[in-house]
Amino acid sequence: MRVTTRTIADKKQQHEKITMLTAYDYTFARLLDEAEIDMLLVGDSLSNVIQGNDTTLPVTLDEMIYHTKAVVKGARNYSMVVCDLPFMSYQTSEKDGFRNAGRVMKETGAGAVKLEGGERVCGTVKLMTDNGIPVCGHLGLTPQSINQFGTYRTRGTTPDEADRIKQDALALQDAGVFAIVLEKIPAALAAEVTKMLKVATIGIGAGNGCDGQVLVLHDMLGLNEEFHPRFVRKYLRLAEEVRGAFKKYGEDVRSGGFPSKEESY
Question: For position 24, which CATH number holds?
Answer without folding.
Answer: 3.20.20.60
